[in-house]
Write a structure and sequence with these properties.
alpha/beta, 14 helices
């Protein structure tokens, strides 16, 4: 007689099948997690994250925005004073315990919170952050999250670390599509207006290596400082006049722009620039082509909105096909969960 057992294996009962499915579901997170996880930080170093973080200390505003994008603010246990001082923008994050300044935090306060990961900028604080926290078993991950060339990789890495890959992918898909459309439109314009790009300090020009330089280039402009060897350099008024910029872009340090704490700030900055001695000789000043942009919007995770504003300003011929307000609105409402408001850009109309 033939043995039919191999053709008709015993079936699992409903209760046994349910139990098996439950075990598989419980095992799935363990199978998906690939820890320790090695990622490249903002300094190009390999950093090992030993396990999926459940308690984060956030020293960077850009990283705090990234947590909102990834729907992971519940993991934060400590923030800097700069975040605590602006509850209108930061919401519940501003109510978390303080660990001091973003560039010189209180390391004892960090240790007391028992974080399993600290996220800070690439350059600041200094190496003492790792030196003091490493003996306590607290890893430090340095992510700038404000440079176009590395923003996508850093967001993807943070999404993997926190188990928020889907949220990271949704943001990156939007970010890439927005920038691709802008680059296509300004590429068709066929012109690259000469731009004098000034950092937060007067006559401190932003060159290669600065976040704003990358954004200006993405907006289809020729940065007059693109041949300089350092990200920021001091220049003279004579240098600017001789360079004959067609447009001027001035970055202003974050001043609680979301709540528009000082509506007159950006107009005042622009007025002072136009009144500089000798600047009336430049094409930019003669034509009133001066734009002031707040760092609250860019550079950072909202870079696509900042590039949209810069491109529409620099290329009037295609401005009607670029809607900076729409890009900004989607960033604020869809990804940060905020209302569509703020004073971020001023180029001669209402902020």
């Amino acid at each position: 007689m033939k043995n039919h057992a191999t053709r008709n294996p015993p079936r699992l009962g409903r209760s046994a099948l349910a139990a098996l499915l439950c075990l598989l579901c419980l095992a799935a997170p363990a199978l998906a997690a690939d820890f320790p996880l090695a990622v490249t930080d903002a300094k190009g170093r390999q950093v090992s994250v030993p396990r999926r973080p459940q308690r984060l200390v956030v020293l960077s505003g850009n990283a705090a925005d990234a947590l909102r994008i990834l729907r992971a603010t519940d993991l934060a246990t400590g923030v800097t004073e700069r975040i605590r001082e602006n509850p209108v923008y930061w919401g519940s994050l501003a109510a978390l315990p303080s660990v001091g300044k973003w560039n010189s935090p209180n390391l004892e306060a960090i240790a007391a919170l028992r974080p399993d990961l600290v996220i800070g900028y690439g350059a600041n604080p200094g190496p003492e952050l790792e030196e003091r926290l490493a003996p306590l078993g607290i890893p430090v991950l340095r992510l700038d999250l404000h440079r176009l060339h590395s923003l996508e990789a850093e967001m993807a890495d943070l999404g993997r670390i926190l188990g928020r890959e889907a949220e990271a992918s949704a943001y990156l898909e939007w970010h890439r599509a927005a920038l691709a459309r802008i680059r296509d439109l300004v590429g068709r314009a066929g012109t690259r207006p000469r731009a004098y790009v000034e950092g937060y300090s007067d006559f401190r020009v932003a060159g290669p290596g600065s976040g704003i330089d990358e954004m200006v280039r993405a907006a289809g402009c020729l940065n007059l400082a693109e041949t300089m060897a350092i990200p920021f350099a001091e220049v003279t008024p004579e240098w600017v006049v001789a360079a004959a910029p067609q447009i001027v872009i001035k970055a202003v340090s974050g001043q609680r722009s979301y709540e528009c704490a000082d509506p007159g700030l950006l107009p005042r900055v622009r007025e002072r620039i136009l009144a500089r001695p000798g600047w009336s000789l430049t094409p930019a000043a003669r034509d009133g082509r001066v734009l002031v942009i707040a760092s609250d919007l860019c550079p950072g995770t909202g870079a696509a909105a900042g590039v949209a504003h810069l491109a529409a300003f620099a290329h009037p011929e295609v401005a009607g096909r670029i809607d900076p307000g729409a890009v900004q609105r989607e960033y604020l409402t869809r990804f940060l969960g905020l209302a569509d408001q703020g004073c971020y850009v001023f180029a001669g109309a209402r902020p």
